[in-house]
Design brief:
alpha+beta, 2 domains, four-stranded antiparallel β-sheet, 10 strands, 30% helix, extended
Length: 272
């Protein structure tokens, strides 16, 4: 840390210039076709590396019943290999902006807390936008940082949406664009939807009675042979599904006109 501070003090203007250039480069990504890294893993590329360590001696512990390391003052250099390159496993292009509907106040507050510039819309906006359907949500069984994370399958879609007046527009030609991208792209590891700020989209409010919907499902199967073939394939491939009468009817309900349209619909849309 001391050495880093010394370097910065020697030429602070160089750091300031580098930061300004980095901000300009990020802002210039808005609306481009450039894919930006969201997640990754260590690549197979490696190089020799000397780990600067201290010698350690294992001492028996009467408390643990096992040896416990005690570090000494003696310096110990350990030849090893370092993997310091990443392979991208998830990327997204940067849109011109995002619309966040006004009712998602907690999402809007988090964006503002992160220093992301936003603008309030003054009139209703209607159009076809790129967005997502988030299917098969699965919540973690233990909390992390006080919240239960959720995983899901993401399906890109284009849908007609109405954005109410008073909603928030997030322009992406700003220095915090990468932060906004990581919060608003659902698949990103630290997106707001993964942190549980949009759990309501997964809730089904409208249900059906078997005796009412079963005849409708029968008629759907008769009129749509392709759907029937998909259903029969699901029966053969998924034994748990095949033995669950309610799940079988739910499968047809999800493909019917009676499913509430907002279920599993990501409310935030991209302006490409």
């Amino acid at each position: 840390m001391k050495r880093s501070i010394e370097i910065l003090l020697r030429d602070p203007k160089a750091l300031q210039a580098a930061v300004r250039e980095a901000d300009r480069a990020v802002a210039a990504l808005a609306g481009s076709a450039t894919a930006v890294h969201l997640d990754g893993k260590s690549s197979d590329e490696s190089k020799p590396f000397t780990f600067r360590a201290l010698k350690a001696v294992a001492r028996p512990s009467s408390l643990t019943g096992a040896p416990v390391l005690q570090y000494q003052k003696e310096i110990l250099d350990i030849p090893t290999t370092i993997y310091d390159r990443m392979t991208t496993t998830l990327a997204a292009t940067v849109p011109k902006g995002y619309y966040v509907p006004a009712e998602w106040t907690e999402v809007i507050e988090r964006l503002e807390l992160h220093g992301i510039k936003t603008e309030r819309t003054t009139k209703e906006i209607r159009g076809e936008f790129a967005t997502y359907r988030l299917k098969e949500p699965k919540w973690s069984t233990v909390p992390f940082e006080g919240r239960l994370a959720v995983d899901f399958k993401q399906v890109p879609v284009k849908e007609k949406r109405t954005i109410p007046a008073g909603s928030v527009y997030v322009p992406m030609n700003q220095r915090a664009a990468r932060v906004a991208l990581n919060l608003l792209e659902p698949a990103a590891p630290d997106s707001l939807v993964r942190w549980g700020f949009l759990n309501a989209i997964f809730e089904q409010k409208e249900y059906f009675s078997d005796y009412v919907f079963e005849p409708i499902a029968q008629e759907m199967a008769r009129l749509h042979p392709q759907l029937k073939a998909e259903f029969e394939a699901k029966l053969k491939a998924d034994a748990k599904f095949a033995t669950n009468p309610r799940a079988r009817l739910q499968w047809w309900h999800e493909r019917s006109p009676y499913l509430e349209p907002d279920k599993d619909a990501y409310p935030i849309v991209r302006v490409d």
